[in-house]
Design goal:
The complex is a heterodimer of chains A (114) and B (115). Chain A is mostly beta strands and 114 residues long. Chain A has strands at 4-5, 11-14, 19-25, 30-38, 45-51, 54-58, 61-66, 71-76, 85-93, 103-104, 108-113. Chain B starts with a strand and ends with a strand. Chain A binds chain B through residues 4, 6, 8, 31-32, 34, 36, 41-46, 49, 51, 88, 90, 92, 94, 97-107, and chain B through 4, 31, 33, 35, 40-43, 45, 48, 50, 56, 58-59, 91, 93, 95, 98-109, 111.
């Protein structure tokens, strides 16, 4: 079993829809949770970053972490065709002051059609 | 400012040859990571450098893989005696301190094809 599980999709939605992307994990030591967006033939770029449980909102993006269920989500409101990309969840255990290694999900491929 | 730069962007090599992949991190970033991304797979951790500390090599898949970071800046990932299963996109990332509140910035990767 991989430490981070993510449904690869593909997911296809109409413009303006609310998108929900999810990951589950098995390592209870994970404290830091991130979502990255990756366009074709580009490197991943950080979208949003949360620590421990709770919600964090940044524009149209909201990240949720439920540590009791070992489950994280990313919501995209008012989705746009430019949101079409692969979305990767990532997480890290807190080793004192260093982030160390990130564990990534496989990524979910999202298409938003006009 | 300049982001993480990787070269070459594409590399085709014959099975059994050695290859070197280069990463120029963002200036001032003390942490540097190498990941590998195969088709349809997530990012597989390879190695992590943090300042002058000993690198975390726990992700290197075999002794054919090695990496070094010179002067705390540029890094080179070397794959010896390449195999077809080494074909993947090799991604480099850097962060300011490697600490928990310092995000990783990725380059666009080197796409390696072993024929």
């Amino acid at each position: 079993q991989k430490e981070v599980e993510q449904d690869p999709g593909p997911l296809s939605v109409p413009e303006g829809a609310i998108v929900s992307l999810n990951c589950t994990y098995s390592n209870s030591a994970f404290q830091y949770f991130m979502w990255y967006r990756q366009y074709s033939r580009k490197g991943p770029e950080l979208l949003i970053y949360t620590y421990s449980s709770g919600n964090k909102e940044d524009g149209r993006f909201t990240a949720q972490v439920d540590k009791s269920s070992k489950y994280i989500s990313l919501f995209i409101r008012d989705s746009q065709p430019s949101d079409s990309a692969t979305y990767l969840c990532a997480m890290s255990a807190n080793r004192g002051s260093t982030l160390g290694r990130l564990y990534f999900g496989r990524g979910t491929q999202l298409t938003v059609w006009p | 400012g300049a982001g993480v730069s990787q070269s070459p962007s594409n590399k085709v090599t014959e099975k059994g040859k050695d290859v070197e992949l280069r990463c120029d991190p963002i200036s001032g970033h003390t942490a540097l990571y190498w990941y590998r991304q195969s088709l349809g797979q997530g990012l597989e951790f390879l190695i992590y450098f943090q300042g002058n500390s000993a690198p975390d090599k726990s992700g290197l898949p075999s002794d054919r893989f090695s990496a070094e970071r010179t002067g705390g800046s540029v890094s080179t990932l070397t794959i010896q005696r390449t195999q077809q299963e080494d074909s993947a996109v090799y991604l480099c990332a850097s962060s300011y301190t490697g600490t928990s509140n310092s995000p990783l910035h990725f380059g666009n990767g080197t796409r390696l094809t072993v024929t």
